[in-house]
Structure formats: C-alpha cells, structure tokens
Amino acid sequence: MLGLDTVDLARLQFATTVMYHIIFLALSIGLASYLAFLEAMWLKTGNRVYLGIYHYWLPHFAVNYTAGVVSGVIMAFEFGTNWSVFAAKAGGISGVLLTYEVVTAFFLEAGFFGIMMFGEGRVSRKVHFFATCMVALGAYISTFWILASNSWMQTPAGYAIENGQFIPENWWSVIFNPSQPYRFVHMSLAAIIATAFMVAGVAAWHLYRNHRDAVARKMFSMALWTLTLIVPLQIVAGDLHGLNTLEHQPAKVAAMEAYWKAEPEREGMPMVVLAWPDQEQEKNLFTLEIPRLSSLYLTHSLTGKIQGLEQWSEDERPNVPLVFYAFRLMVYLGFSMLGLVALSLWLRKRQQLYESRWFLILMMVATPMGIIAIEAGWVTTEAGRQPWIIYGLLRTADGVSPFSVSTLIASLAGLWGIYTLIFFIGIYFFFKLVRPTPESILPDKEDYNEAREQSAPRHPFSRRSNHNP
Fold first, then answer.
1. Distance between CA 246 and CA 260 in Å, rounded?
2. What global pTM score does this model have?
3. Bigger pLDDT: 211 or 382?
4. Is the pLDDT of residue 226 over 80?
5. Which of 93, 191, 333, 418 could make an S-S bridge to 373, C-beta 3.0–4.6 Å?
6. H-helix or E-strand containing 167?
7. In this structure, are strands 388-390 and 283-290 parallel, antiparallel, or unpaired?
8. Is the omega angle on the peptide bond into residue 402 within 30 degrees of 0, that is, cis?
9. Which is it for the CA torsion 119, 109, 51, 208, positive or negative?
10. Which residues neighbour 312 within 8 Å (Cβ) at sequence distance 6 or greater?
11. Is the Cα dihedral 379, 384, 389, 391 positive or negative?
C-alpha cells in the first residue's frame, strides 16, 4: 500500500482511531463542563434561559459521550492487537494507568450519566446537579489518566527495566512525569476552546437567521466570554509546554522549527513563518523568516539557540515536514482565535455583537477551528516523538505486532470504512440536533414551573417547541 510497511500501517491505523476519538473526547470534556455551569446558573438565578440552553446541548453531549466510549474501547484493543510487543514490555505501567482511568473515571461517569440524562424530575434538583458535576469531573479524571499514560511514553520517569520489561519503581514519578502537568492543562483548555467555538458557531448561525433570538444571544455571549478568558490562557500554557518539550524532547522542537544546522554566526534564531523543508537535503528550500522571534518564544531570549537536527542521526529524527506544518497550523489557528476574541470585544463595546452579519459568518466558518487545532497539536506531539514509542528507550518499529502487510491493509480498510460511515452519521445528527432554534425549546412558564418543582420529567432528546401543545 503506497510502499508502506507494517510499522507505517499500524501507526496509520492507530492514528486514525486517535484522531476520531479525540474529537469526541474533547467535546465531551467541554460540553460536560458547560452543562454543569448552565445548571448551576439555573439553580442560582432561576433564569429559564439557562435551562433552555442546558436542554439544547444535552443531546449533543449524550451523542459525543457514547461515541467517545466506543472509539476509546477500539483504541484500547489496538494496543493489544497492533502493538503487542509494546504492551508486553510496558503493560506494567501503561496498562495500569489506563486501568486506573476505567476504575476511577469511567465508572464514575457511567454511574451518574443515567441520572444526568433521565433523572430530571425524578430526583431533586440538587441531586441532579450533583450528577451533572460528577459526569464533568469524570471527564477530567479520564483525561488525566489517559494523558498520564501518553506523557509517560513521551517523558518516561519512575521506572526500572528488568528482563526487557518496564517496571514501576515510583508511581508518583510515573504519573506526574515531567510533561504530564503541562499536557493535561493544555488539553483541558483546548477541549473548552473547541466546545466554545462549536457553541458560538451554532449560535451565530441562529443569530444570522434571527438576531433577536434571546437564547441564541445568551449562548453566543457566553461562548465568546469563555474564549476571551481561555484563549490567552492557552497561549501561555502552550508556551510553558513548549519550554518543557525543549528540555526533554529537543529533537521534536528542532523538527517543529525545521532547524537543521546550528548557525553560530547568527545572533538569535529567526521564526520560520513559511518554508519547504527537504529532509533528504537537510535544508529548507524556501523560507520566509522573522529575525530572532524564534529565540524569543523558544528560549525567552533574543539571542537564545537550540540544537539543530544535525545533532541526531537520520534514523533518530522525526518526519520534519509533517511536524513543521502541523505545529504551524496549530499556532496560526491559535492566534487567529485571539484575533476573533479581540473582534468580539470591539463589537461588544460598539453594541453590535449580535447584528454584525460579517462577524456571524466568521464565527460560523470558525466552528471547527478548535477541533482542527487539537488534531494539529496531536500530530505534532505524536509524529514529533518518532522514531520512539517510549522516548529514547523503545523504538516504534520494535513495539509493533508481527502482522503481515496484507492483514494490516485489510483491517485499516475496514476501520476507514466504519469511521467514514460514523462520521457522516455524526454530521447528520449534528445538523438535526442544531436545526431547531434555541428559543423554540425555551421552557414555557408552565413547563418551567413544573421543572422548578421537579414534578415533570423531561426526555433529554425532546425538542418540543413552545408553540406545540
């Protein structure tokens, strides 16, 4: 298949699974937090708009949560099928961390998920709110353990090697390995940003059709305030994560910058805005640079330097063009988000936030921006650590299962077929769920009073309009 060997095919299959799974995981984290905040605001203020928005997004969370569980199970099985050698060598650490995720997070989410979805009107408001909070907490605990496992593979610590197997010596060091806190914060903020852009895009679409929709206005405003707070924090978190990566994975950073050879005669490193990295010739065929800027954000000094890729042999370097372009896509999207936040503040000050049709179109186009940035970030992270599955200790080629190329091609084709079908089904349900106007599902006064008294259960997938009996 296009000259790919078993390692390439196994990596491609796992990458496909992860890139689908990360969408559901990110939106589940963000929507769970959003729903908990909405229910808290409803309980605090009694404003039925918050209850309406809660009911609007609850079905989206249910769909994402379900799809995330299924895709996560497939990913877990792939460790044992495609990467059995890695599982045998590192299962005593990586497998245990993923087991902790199931025991502490999945059981917590699953236990309260039913109350959250179907308990409204059957349990007290406080119990229902507690269930929503537990589901949100479970999403973050799940993220914590998954990223602890991934981060240990990136920056291994607290281990010993006995008879070719990785044995935990210090679980605290294993879990809180050098990159885990940075990766956890970065991913958590990214999930909130991706969710906020989705909410803002849907609200913008409804406001484009009717800028007087009170519920869409509230959704739009809340999403943009969230982005105003979180996007700058994410840029700071990304900078700190970059400094950590430079310390522990310098080859990845050199690939991110397409920095081939040390240039002692130059004062500071330029930021390569655009380039065409040529891995065979070990140089950039075309470059557009900003002097010293790379030194500033990589080392926080105008004269700082990093190691060039020449410091590593060819078989220890990642795919430079892939890492370079993925990293730039993530960064450019991040600063585009910051620009949209600035525009929203300017329009808010001019009291034109809901009526500026050009800005509503921009936010509709930007709906998938957060998800694309997450995908680009994970490509940077995973492709940048190659050729290692456990950085500096176990090569990816040595961790793959001994399958034939034809077997992996067949399984990859089946996976692509299934995930393509799931993708289009997901798109169909997404547009089906967002089609009703937010104001149309706002609880009328009678339903609202019933909800306040916990006497009228509401089905989480209902889309009843005020105007229907």
1. 15
2. 0.88
3. 382
4. yes
5. 333
6. strand 165-168
7. unpaired
8. no
9. negative
10. 251, 254
11. negative
Cα-Cα end-to-end distance for the chain: 58
At residue 395, the 3 state secondary structure works out as strand
Residues 105 and 138: their CA atoms lie apart, in Å, by 5
List phi, psi (to 5°) of 436: -60, 140
More confident residue, 342 or 435: 342
pLDDT, the chain, mean: 84
Q: Each residue of 364-409: pLDDT tens digit?
A: 999 999 999 999 999 999 998 989 999 989 898 888 888 777 777 8
CA–CA gap between residue 62 and residue 58 (Å, rounded): 6
Which residue's structure tokens are 């959003």?
34
> What residue has token string 């916990």?
454
Question: Per the structure block, which two tokens stand in for 164?
Answer: 């070719």
Give the separation between CA 61 and CA 297, rounded to whole angstroms: 37
Beta-strand ranges (E) seen in 228-370 are 271-278, 283-290
Spatial separation of the C-alpha atoms in residues 362 and 253, rounded to whole Å? 32
Q: How many CB atoms lie within 10 A of CB 403?
A: 16
Domain ranges of the chain: 1-177+404-469, 181-392
Query: What's the token pair of residue 124?
Result: 């007290």
What pLDDT digit, counting tens, does each position of 53-99 carry? 888 888 888 888 877 777 777 777 787 788 888 888 988 888 888 88
Q: Which of 455, 467, 447, 469 is nearest to 55 (CA)?
A: 447
Report how far residue 247's alpha carbon sits from residue 322's, in angstroms, rounded to the nearest whole number. 21
Side-chain-side CA neighbours of 190 within 13 Å: the count stands at: 30
Q: Residue 14 corresponds to which amino acid?
A: F
Please name the residues in contact with 135: beta carbons below 8 A apart, sequence gap of 6 or more.
32, 36, 108, 109, 112, 113, 116
Residue pair 121/456 in contact by the 8 Å Cβ criterion: yes
Compute φ and ψ for 277, nearest 5 degrees: -70, 130
Tens digits of residue pLDDT in 162-187: 888 899 999 999 999 999 999 999 99
**Hey, how many other C-beta atoms are within 10 angstroms of the C-beta on 180?**
22
Give me Rg for the CA atoms of the chain: 24
What is the 8-class DSSP label of residue 120? B
How buried is 268 (Cβ within 10 angstroms: 0-12 exposed, 13-18 middle, 19+ buried)? middle
